[in-house]
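ok so i was messing around last nite and threw this chain in just to see what happens. nothing serious, just curious
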Amino acid sequence: MAFDNLTEKLQNAFKGLRSKGRLTEADIKAAMKEVKMALLEADVNFRVVKDFIKAVQEKAVGEDVLNSLTPGQTVIKYVNEELVKMMGGTAEELTLLPGNEITVIMMCGLQGAGKTTTAAKIAGKLKQKGKRPLLAACDVYRPAAIEQLKINGDKQEVPVFSMGTNHNPVNIAKASVEHAKANGNNVVIIDTAGRLHIDDDMMAELEDIKKNLEIHRTILVVDSMTGQDAVNVASTFHERLKIDGVVLTKLDSDTRGGAALSIRAMTGRPIYYVGMGEKLSDLEPFYPDRMASRILGMGDVLTLIEKAEAEIDEEQAARMAKKIKRAEFDFNDFLEQMQQMKKMGGLSGILRMLPGMGLPSNLDIDDDALKGTEAIIYSMTLEERTNPSIINPSRKRRIADGAGVDISEVNRLMKQFEQSRKMMKQMSGMMTGKGRRRGGGFKFPFGGM
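result:
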């Protein structure tokens, strides 16, 4: 994630605080100096950092902290509170007009920020909530922009309204609303043209659309990889267009990511969503408290549970739980679990949402390495996957050749698989009765992993 470096530096800054039974004012100031440097290196706006440090220090040097039994934890609590406040305090949803009234949303942003893809993803999210969205192709300048919107619309099974490249974007936008009225769509999402940098022509066109059409929500899409420039872009767009909210993309990349911490403070506009990858599920609602928790290395179990509930079929999970309990888990199930894990962001994405993992920023969790395991399983026959005990040395050689790996890789997988089955058998015996007394609850799907 974009905040991995920041997380590591903040945890280092807090190490000294946690280890001390008592804190002095000098201890707090030294820690806050490290926090300040970490935030500035993450590209958080200087003015925002200055206000943040001042607010934490004013709380942290009070008598109730210095005389507290756990002063280090109390200071970290204040840092968490101020991070949440900096990012807006509470989550703000993208609100729409009630019932069948048509909500018109205008997407804007620089070229390359992911505006067209994000427009389709938002349409997909709204469709999941029972809305009937229509995407309007108003970028008539960029080569293949209309085709890109159609491809992304198809992925979300959302219709796209287009009049080609020979019409004025204002007229296309107006016609899209009329089309929505005639076809029962109650949300119109207008994909507008971007530029490589902010210019008057682009702004004038967006202002023209707003003058000639009732736009209910103006959403700015910002690339988090541009760092401090992302904040400048947001501020400029807000001055000219009065944006309602922001979508921050590419937050899964290895960037400094300080834009997320600065945009709300600098513009006063909320962040609706953050883009953490290519899939629809990777466009996550932005929760300041959950993001603060991730930044401080405390995980984000709520988002992980929501991802699991969205991606995992309950009947499938229940069937898998029974198989695990009976130690009947086979390679077909193993493969199924891997597919589910991919849907939820891969192993690295899951681990980073679990509290207490403390993953260092330089730790390279290679999700692609799992492809080798998949290749081995796909090289097995259906009989071998269902009944792994029949896999003898000659079968292993054939499987290794089919997967393009050394036979030692097949042996390693077989050994790990057998150990997992033994462990599951032991655990199912230990847990018999306990689970029934505790009742139901969320079942995490990766028992076989």
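not much to say yet. Residues 407-431 form the longest helix (25 residues).
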